[in-house]
Amino acid sequence: MQPLIITTALTGAETTIDAQPNLPITPSQQAQTAKDCFDAGSTVLHLHVRDDSGNPTQSLERFSDSINKIRTAVPEIIIQMSTGGAVGESFENRMEPLKLKPNMATLNAGTLNFGDEVFTNAPADIERLVAYFNKVGVVPEIEVYESGMIDYVAKLVKKGLITHTPLHVQFVLGVPGGMSGKPKNLVYMAEHLKEEIPTATWGVAGIGRWQLPCAIMAIVMGGHVRVGFEDNIFYHKGIVAKSNAQLVDRIVRIATEYGRPIATVAQTKEILGL
Ligand code: KMH
Ligand code: ZN
C-alpha cells in the first residue's frame, strides 16, 4: 500500500469562529497551524482564506499574505489552494488565486445542493477552469461529491482535456445534500473510480461525523485522508477539537497502529506527480 497522505483542510469557507473557537483565520494563525499539522504528519494543506472580519474571500492579496507566512513557517508543505471558495462566489473570483501558481489547486467536478444552498459548477465553467489549470501548470485535485462526477471527469480525461497523471481525486462525502460517508458509498466510489480512471489515486474528506469513519476506511483501503476544521470541528461527538493538529495526530496514531506508513513530502510529491 502507498504511504498515507494526510491533507489538512484547516479553515474552509463555512466554519465559523463561534462554532470552532480554534479556527485559524489570520495569515499568522494559518502559518502556525500549517507548521503544527506538518510536524504532526500532514504534508498537504488545503487552503481557504478569510478577510479581516473572518468572512471567506478569494482575494489574491489575502491568499498571497497567507501563503508567504505559511512558506516562511514551513517551506516544505504542499499548498493546495481552493478554487471552490464559498458557495455563491463568482467563478471569476474563484479562479483569481491561481495567478499565484500554487503547487496544486482544487477543481470541483459538478454541482450539488450544499445545505440550503447550491454549489454551482457548470460544465462550461469547469472546462474553462481545466484550460486555465493547463495554461498555468497547476496540478488539480478533483473534488467529487457523487458518482456521476467520476463519469464526467473520466470523459474530460478521455477527451484529453485533463492531462495530469496520476490524477488525484478527493471524495467529499457527507455534505448535506450530497452522498453520505457510509462505508458502502466509499467502497463504491473507489471501485467506480478504478474502473473509469484506473491510474487515479484518491483521498476522502468525510464531512462532520463522517470524517473519522471515512478516514479509517481509507487507511485500510489504500486511499488517502483529509481532516480539518473545514470538514469537521469535533474530536468526539459534542467535544470541539482543540486544534487541526489534534485531528492529524489521531490519524497518524491509527495508521501507525494499523501498519500504514505516513507519507513524507518526497513520497507525497511522487504519489501526486508534483
Ligand atoms: N466551500 C465549498 C462550497 C474546494 O475547496 O474546492 C467548496 C469547497 C471546495 O470547499
Ligand atoms: Zn475547500
Describe the protein's architecture and organization.
The protein has 274 residues and is α/β, with parallel strands linked by helices. The protein is 39% helix and 20% strand. The chain contains 9 helices and 14 strands. The protein has helices at 27-40, 60-73, 91-95, 123-136, 147-158, 183-196, 211-221, 244-258, 265-272; strands at residues 6-9, 44-47, 49-50, 56-57, 78-81, 104-108, 112-114, 117-119, 139-144, 168-173, 201-206, 224-227, 234-236, 239-240. Strands 1-2-5-6-9-10-11-12 form an 8-stranded parallel barrel, surrounded by 7 helices. Strands 3-4 form a two-stranded antiparallel ribbon. Helix 5 links the parallel strand 9 and strand 10 (168-173). Helix 1 crosses helix 2 (60-73) and helix 5 runs parallel beside helix 6 (183-196). The longest helix has 15 residues, at 244-258. The structure holds (5S)-5-amino-3-OXO-hexanoic acid (KMH) and zinc ion (ZN). Zinc ion binds at residues 9, 12, 46, 48, 82, 84, 230.
What attributes characterize this protein structure?
274 residues; two-stranded antiparallel sheet; 14 strands; binds (5S)-5-amino-3-OXO-hexanoic acid; binds zinc ion
**In percent, how helical is the residue content?**
25-40%
**Percent of residues in beta strands:** 15-25%
Which blocks of ≥5 consecutive residues have pLDDT under 50? none
The strands making up the biggest β-sheet line up spatially as 1-2-5-6-9-10-11-12
Give the beta-strand count. Answer: 14
Ligands, deduplicated: (5S)-5-amino-3-OXO-hexanoic acid, zinc ion
What pattern of helices and strands is seen along the backbone? EHEEEHEHEEEHEHEHEHEEEHH
Main sheet properties: 8 strands, parallel, barrel
What does the radius of gyration come to?
Answer: 17 Å
What is the CA–CA distance across the termini?
19 Å
